[in-house]
Amino acid sequence: MAKKIIRPLHSEADYDVALNEIGRYFENEPKPGTPEADRFDLLALIIEDYERRRWPIEPPDTIDAIRYRMETGGYTQADLGKLLGSRQRASDILTRKRPLTMRMAWRLHREWGIPAEALIAPPRSRGRRPAA
Questions:
Q1: What whole-number distance in Å separates Cα of residue 125 and Cα of residue 69?
Q2: Boundaries of every domain in the chain
Q3: For the domain 62-119, what is the CATH code?
Q4: pLDDT one-digit tens code per residue, 34-67
Q5: Which residues are CB-contacts of 43 (< 8 A; sequence separation ≥ 6)?
Q6: How far is the first Cα of the chain from the last one, in angstroms, to the nearest whole number?
Protein backbone atom coordinates (compact mmCIF):
# COMPACT_ATOMS: atom_id res chain seq x y z
CA MET A 1 0.00 0.00 0.00
CA ALA A 2 1.41 3.38 -1.00
CA LYS A 3 1.86 5.88 1.77
CA LYS A 4 0.31 9.31 1.53
CA ILE A 5 2.77 12.14 0.75
CA ILE A 6 3.75 14.15 3.82
CA ARG A 7 2.68 17.77 3.48
CA PRO A 8 2.73 20.79 5.80
CA LEU A 9 -0.08 20.88 8.33
CA HIS A 10 -2.60 23.66 7.74
CA SER A 11 -5.52 22.67 9.94
CA GLU A 12 -6.47 20.90 13.12
CA ALA A 13 -7.71 18.01 10.98
CA ASP A 14 -4.30 17.70 9.27
CA TYR A 15 -2.67 17.79 12.71
CA ASP A 16 -4.95 15.02 14.04
CA VAL A 17 -4.18 12.80 11.04
CA ALA A 18 -0.42 13.32 11.53
CA LEU A 19 -0.67 12.59 15.27
CA ASN A 20 -2.59 9.41 14.55
CA GLU A 21 0.00 8.25 12.04
CA ILE A 22 3.03 9.06 14.18
CA GLY A 23 1.36 7.31 17.12
CA ARG A 24 1.59 4.02 15.25
CA TYR A 25 5.35 4.43 15.04
CA PHE A 26 5.58 4.67 18.80
CA GLU A 27 3.86 1.30 19.04
CA ASN A 28 6.20 -0.27 16.45
CA GLU A 29 9.41 1.76 16.28
CA PRO A 30 11.05 1.79 12.83
CA LYS A 31 14.69 0.81 12.40
CA PRO A 32 17.05 3.78 11.84
CA GLY A 33 17.98 4.42 8.21
CA THR A 34 14.84 2.86 6.78
CA PRO A 35 12.19 4.68 4.74
CA GLU A 36 9.81 4.22 7.70
CA ALA A 37 12.30 5.93 10.04
CA ASP A 38 12.60 8.80 7.55
CA ARG A 39 8.81 9.08 7.45
CA PHE A 40 8.69 9.14 11.25
CA ASP A 41 11.29 11.93 11.34
CA LEU A 42 9.38 13.99 8.76
CA LEU A 43 6.10 13.57 10.64
CA ALA A 44 7.80 14.66 13.86
CA LEU A 45 9.15 17.77 12.12
CA ILE A 46 5.84 18.88 10.64
CA ILE A 47 4.02 18.22 13.92
CA GLU A 48 6.60 20.23 15.85
CA ASP A 49 6.36 23.07 13.32
CA TYR A 50 2.56 23.14 13.51
CA GLU A 51 2.57 23.13 17.32
CA ARG A 52 5.16 25.93 17.44
CA ARG A 53 3.06 28.09 15.11
CA ARG A 54 -0.32 27.17 16.62
CA TRP A 55 0.61 27.32 20.30
CA PRO A 56 3.71 29.51 20.66
CA ILE A 57 5.36 29.61 24.05
CA GLU A 58 6.47 33.08 25.03
CA PRO A 59 9.70 33.43 26.99
CA PRO A 60 9.14 34.05 30.69
CA ASP A 61 9.19 37.51 32.19
CA THR A 62 12.75 38.49 33.17
CA ILE A 63 12.09 38.71 36.89
CA ASP A 64 10.03 35.52 36.86
CA ALA A 65 12.95 33.75 35.14
CA ILE A 66 15.39 35.00 37.79
CA ARG A 67 13.05 33.99 40.63
CA TYR A 68 12.50 30.56 39.07
CA ARG A 69 16.26 29.99 38.77
CA MET A 70 16.74 31.11 42.36
CA GLU A 71 14.11 28.62 43.49
CA THR A 72 15.33 25.68 41.42
CA GLY A 73 19.02 26.38 42.05
CA GLY A 74 18.67 27.00 45.78
CA TYR A 75 19.94 30.57 45.38
CA THR A 76 19.02 33.32 47.83
CA GLN A 77 18.63 37.04 47.37
CA ALA A 78 22.05 37.34 49.04
CA ASP A 79 23.50 35.10 46.29
CA LEU A 80 21.90 37.32 43.68
CA GLY A 81 23.35 40.35 45.44
CA LYS A 82 26.86 38.86 45.29
CA LEU A 83 26.42 38.22 41.59
CA LEU A 84 25.05 41.70 40.82
CA GLY A 85 27.21 43.73 43.19
CA SER A 86 25.00 44.36 46.22
CA ARG A 87 21.96 43.07 48.08
CA GLN A 88 20.22 46.39 47.54
CA ARG A 89 20.73 46.13 43.79
CA ALA A 90 19.34 42.59 43.86
CA SER A 91 16.32 43.80 45.84
CA ASP A 92 15.73 46.67 43.41
CA ILE A 93 15.90 44.29 40.44
CA LEU A 94 13.49 41.80 42.01
CA THR A 95 10.99 44.52 42.94
CA ARG A 96 11.30 46.06 39.45
CA LYS A 97 12.61 49.36 40.82
CA ARG A 98 15.76 49.06 38.71
CA PRO A 99 16.14 47.60 35.23
CA LEU A 100 18.52 44.77 34.55
CA THR A 101 21.62 45.97 32.67
CA MET A 102 23.25 43.99 29.88
CA ARG A 103 26.21 43.31 32.17
CA MET A 104 23.88 41.89 34.84
CA ALA A 105 22.03 39.84 32.23
CA TRP A 106 25.31 38.44 30.94
CA ARG A 107 26.40 37.43 34.47
CA LEU A 108 23.07 35.74 35.16
CA HIS A 109 23.28 33.89 31.87
CA ARG A 110 26.91 32.84 32.32
CA GLU A 111 26.88 32.04 36.05
CA TRP A 112 23.35 30.74 36.63
CA GLY A 113 22.51 29.47 33.14
CA ILE A 114 19.39 31.57 32.68
CA PRO A 115 18.58 31.73 28.94
CA ALA A 116 19.63 35.06 27.46
CA GLU A 117 16.25 35.38 25.67
CA ALA A 118 14.51 35.50 29.05
CA LEU A 119 16.89 38.15 30.39
CA ILE A 120 16.85 40.58 27.48
CA ALA A 121 13.17 40.39 26.54
CA PRO A 122 11.36 43.73 26.55
CA PRO A 123 9.26 44.24 29.67
CA ARG A 124 5.64 43.20 29.40
CA SER A 125 2.97 45.77 29.98
CA ARG A 126 1.32 45.44 33.36
CA GLY A 127 -2.25 46.24 32.41
CA ARG A 128 -1.55 49.79 31.24
CA ARG A 129 -2.99 50.99 27.99
CA PRO A 130 -0.72 52.78 25.54
CA ALA A 131 -1.21 56.52 25.28
CA ALA A 132 -3.49 57.54 22.41
A1: 22
A2: 12-54, 62-119
A3: 1.10.260
A4: 999 999 999 999 999 999 999 998 878 999 999 9
A5: 6, 18, 21, 22, 25
A6: 62
Can you tell me the distance from the alpha carbon of 107 to that of 79, in angstroms, rounded to the nearest whole number?
A: 12
Task: Spell 70-79 as b/e; 16+ CB within 10 A means b.
Answer: beeeebeeeb
pLDDT by residue (tens digit) across 66-99?
Answer: 999 999 999 999 999 999 999 999 999 999 999 9
Using N-to-C axis directions, what is the helix angle for 77-84 and 102-112, rounded to 10°? 120
Taking alpha carbons only, the member of 126, 130, 71, 121 closest to residue 99 is: 121
Closest CA to 45 of 6, 2, 5: 6
